[in-house]
Design brief:
Two copies of one chain form a homodimer. Chain A is an alpha+beta fold and 171 residues long. Helices cover 31% and strands 33% of the residues of chain A. Chain A has five helices and eight strands, in the order H-E-H-H-E-E-E-E-E-E-E-H-H. In chain A, helix 2 crosses helix 3 and helix 3 crosses helix 5.
């Protein structure tokens, strides 16, 4: 694991942060690609039968991440963040506390409807790729709210969808 | 000027952002050093007779920037941010909308007492170093408040102090 990933993992605070960790039998490169390619994100980012109507990725610190969520009834939920750290095949960090270009966000524009910073940390292990997703919050209340909204189930379902999608296109 | 500095300069929004621009007869390297070295920051960061009682710099994206302000009466005002982009001799970007480690800040911990992202962009010109300082805000109200607090005067005074300090140690 890279030193930086280790550092970020050790910075986890159980009172303020949530995480989902899994060993996945897919190369890091494919998971990173699925997380950074709009056409892929549209396939797995929302728990079905929800979908993504529109996705934009400007993959650099300060760049836009947008994945508009689409309900089965056709309602759109805006969802937007700003990338902070991008290291291919290792790490994706973004936040909805900033707009693209690093402007402080007047309000969170995300499905979670709260300020959070998301991290996807990928590392190689003997068993497969370690996938560690972390959500960092500004206080215990936001952390609890995100957990009660179904963080673990939701992020787990979309990870299942990501894996299924990647297997379907890489087979 | 680097493409990235140009892009950030063009992203300036007069309704939401403030800026201070000056041509300085000092090499970019010395200005960058003054902005990133705690011992230097303590000398110029606050308009005198205010000072800095404590300064910490963890110069990397996600790292801590702290410069506790000290009033002539000995009162301390906490001031803390998170670095976002660091390119030696070219660019320093930080925000108080995030804490170190990218956690969304529960409240702004800064002298300005509002969320902002600060940018120091340095470029070489034939006349000298172009120093462009930008403050980005979440809305017009915060921008106006920051301006009325004396942004232009304050950031101008500390730039004068920075120049004077650098000249004194480099002569």
């Amino acid at each position: 694991m890279s030193e930086r990933n280790k550092e970020l993992e050790q910075d986890f605070n159980p009172e303020l942060d949530l995480k989902l960790e899994r060993i996945i039998d897919l190369p890091r490169e494919w998971i990173y690609e699925a997380w950074t390619t709009p056409a892929s994100i549209k396939e797995w980012f929302c728990p079905k039968p929800w979908g993504v109507s529109h996705c934009e990725v400007d993959l650099k610190p300060g760049g836009l991440f947008r994945a508009v969520m689409l309900s089965p009834e056709g309602e759109e939920i805006p969802n937007m963040g700003c990338y902070l750290e991008i290291v291919p095949n290792e790490r994706i960090i973004w936040t909805d506390a900033l707009l693209p270009g690093y402007r402080p966000a007047p309000e969170p524009v995300s499905g979670a409807n709260l300020y959070f910073t998301g991290m996807i940390l990928l590392s190689e292990t003997q068993e497969g790729t370690k996938y560690l997703a972390i959500s960092k919050h500004r206080n215990k209340e936001d952390c609890k709210k995100h957990e009660e909204m179904g963080f673990h189930q939701g992020w787990g379902i979309v990870l299942d969808q990501l894996i299924e999608y990647v297997r379907s296109i890489k087979k």
